[in-house]
Automatic annotation (TrEMBL):
UniProt-listed Pfam families: Cupin_7
Organism: Myxococcus xanthus
InterPro entries in alphabetical order: ChrR-like_cupin_dom (IPR025979), RmlC-like_jellyroll (IPR014710), RmlC_Cupin_sf (IPR011051)
Domain ChrR-like cupin: 14-97
Protein name in the entry: Anti-sigma factor
C-alpha cells in the first residue's frame, strides 16, 4: 500500500508535566486535558481524584476507556477494585459509580466518547457533561490564569 496522504500527518505532543491540575467541579476532582476531538465527539484527559472522592451514579452515551496510572478505586455497583495498571472499558449506555479507596489519590488516563449523564436516584438525568463543556472549562481556566492552551484540538 502506497498512501502518500498519510505523509502529511504529524504528531502533536502534549507535556502533562508542564500542566497544572485544573479543578473540575466538586472538591477532590481535577484534570489535565490532553485532547479534545474537533468534531465534539469526545476528549482525553488525565483525571485526578483525592482519597475518599466518590463519583456519583452516571451513564455514558459513548464508550469510555479508563487506565489507572496510580491509586485504587472501587466500582460501587460490583465491588471490583481497580488498582495501578488496571483498565476498564465502559460500553455506551454503561451506568456506574465508584470511589477512591486508600490513602493515595487516583490518577487515570481516560478517553470519553459521547456525553456523561449524571443520574438521580430514580434514574433521571440531573446533569449532562459534553466534550464542549470540558473544553470551555479548560478555556475559562486558561484565561483566568493567563495560562497557555496546551491540549490538542484535533
Amino acid at each position: 500500500m502506497n498512501d502518500t496522504s498519510l505523509s502529511s500527518a504529524s504528531s502533536r505532543p502534549v507535556d502533562p508535566e508542564r500542566m497544572p491540575w485544573i479543578p473540575m467541579g466538586p472538591a477532590g476532582l481535577s484534570f489535565k486535558p490532553l485532547r479534545f476531538f474537533r468534531d465534539g465527539s469526545g476528549w482525553m484527559y488525565l483525571f485526578r481524584l483525592e482519597p475518599g472522592t466518590v463519583i456519583p451514579r452516571h451513564r455514558h452515551t459513548g464508550e469510555v476507556h479508563g487506565f489507572n496510572l496510580s491509586g485504587t478505586r472501587e466500582l460501587l455497583d460490583t465491588g471490583e477494585v481497580i488498582g495501578p495498571g488496571g483498565y476498564v472499558y465502559e460500553p455506551p449506555g454503561n451506568v456506574d459509580s465508584w470511589r477512591v479507596t486508600g490513602d493515595a489519590p487516583v490518577v487515570l488516563l481516560i478517553t470519553v466518547r459521547g456525553a456523561i449523564e449524571y443520574l438521580t436516584e430514580d434514574g433521571q438525568v440531573s446533569k449532562r457533561v459534553t466534550s464542549e463543556d470540558r473544553l470551555q472549562t479548560y478555556r475559562r481556566w486558561c484565561e483566568a490564569n493567563s495560562a497557555p492552551f496546551m491540549a490538542t484540538l484535533e
